[in-house]
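[step 3/7] fold_predict: job queued, chain A
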Amino acid sequence: MLENGKGPSLPVTSGECEREPDRRPLLQGFHQDAEGHWVAELSCGHTQHLRHQPPWQNRAWVLDPTQRQRLLGQPFTCGWCAAQAAPMDKE
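[step 4/7] structure written:
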């Protein structure tokens, strides 16, 4: 169950969300993995770890429930969709 009380995300698209900025996935919820790291749950069906491990990854906001709540429903760049949308190198 997502932190915002919603069920599972929508099915994964094939990168459509990254090709058209208006169709970027929305941040639907959060959960913690087995190691306690926060994971964003996106409307495209993908997930994205949001680790706070300074100095490499500085995301202190993920530790604050109020700040996480404020981001729900906001567009979020999905690295998985971006990778699917990237042109393949041909040799």
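[step 5/7] annotate
Residues 16-85 form one domain.
The CA atoms of residues 31 and 84 lie 24 Å apart.
exit 0
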